[in-house]
Amino acid sequence: MSLILDLTGQVAVVTGGTRGVGAGIARAFLRAGAEVIVCARRPPDEPVAEVGRTARFHPVDLREPAAVREFFARVATDHGRLDCLVNNAGGTPYRLLGESAAERHARVVELNLTAPMTASLAAYEVMRGQPQGGSVIMIGSVSGTRPSPGTAAYGAAKAGLENLARSMAVEWAPLVRVNTLVLGMVRTELSALHYGDEAGVAAVGATVPLGRLAEPAEIGDACVFLASGRAGYVSGASLLVHGGGERPAFLEAATVNRVENVK
């Protein structure tokens, strides 16, 4: 039996959907037939498009609650419905905790935890009044599941985001489903800034059990699944999309015969 994910007639909002992972998610929803709205503080360098269809862009600062509420009210007015919100916007610079003031770290938490909560609350006001309800997808990170030196505030925010999603899933059931995608490393147009040239990207990819970084389209496909009726009984879940995670360091450090010493 084939798995057909058809979102024709549905409306999806992807925050931070103008580039990188967000654009990959937006394109996946376009391929599935949904009407897609992407939002960010600045417009994309070029329209986000796929299969002859283009996502609509609206500027909004997700850290401004009034602007966020106005944005979702406009989506409801313009499109008559809202079926899915993907909270993708976020990020952080590399910054050791002791090298910056608490206020700088707090802004990272604001962008990666408080802003998704603000957007989700505004989306919920639309979805709760719809017979079909809706779906909220949080874009989490493996940084929220392990120590995250250099990005500690980001990791803490992502850990909080996953927990927030579980609570939302309970409070907003049965009309609104809420899930989290826990991402590993993804190859985007910014990969060179983090990992260097192609050799560097390949070397980093080799640390992943599947041997490579994820592609934005693969993250998008996972989002489409969670938004679809095929995931109709999936709520409060965390779906790991990280290529198997990270190879345990002890496997590289060990010098003894691994077969004989495994108990």
Describe the structure.
This protein has 263 residues and is α/β, with parallel strands linked by helices. The chain has helices at residues 20-31, 65-79, 102-127, 152-171, 191-195, 198-205, 216-227, 249-253, 258-261, and strands at 11-15, 35-40, 49-50, 53-54, 56-59, 84-87, 134-141, 176-183, 238-241. The strands form 2 sheets. The protein has a 7-stranded parallel β-sheet, with helices on both faces. A two-stranded antiparallel sheet has the order 3-4. The model has no long low-confidence stretch (mean pLDDT 92).
What is shown here, in short?
By secondary structure, the chain is α/β, with parallel strands linked by helices.
Task: Indicate the topology.
Elements: E1 11-15, H1 20-31, E2 35-40, E3 49-50, E4 53-54, E5 56-59, H2 65-79, E6 84-87, H3 102-127, E7 134-141, H4 152-171, E8 176-183, H5 191-195, H6 198-205, H7 216-227, E9 238-241, H8 249-253, H9 258-261
Parallel strand pairs: 1-2, 1-6, 2-5, 6-7, 7-8, 8-9
Antiparallel strand pairs: 3-4
Helix pairs in contact: 1-7, 2-3, 3-4
